[in-house]
Amino acid sequence: MYAFDYVRAKSVDEALKALAGADDGVLLAGGHTLIPTLKQRLANPSHVIDIGGLKELKGVSVKGGTVSVGAGTPHGQVANSAEVKKVIPALADLAGHIGDPQVRNRGTIGGSIANNDPAADYPAAIVGLGATVHTNKREIPGDDFFTGMFETALGEGEIVTKVTFPQPKKAAYMKFPNPASRYAIVGVMVADTGDGVRVAVTGAGPGVFRLPEMEAALAKNWSADAVAGISVSAGDLNTDIHASAEYRAHLVTVMAKRAVAKAG
Question: N or C: which end of the chain has fewer CB within 10 A?
Answer without folding.
Answer: C
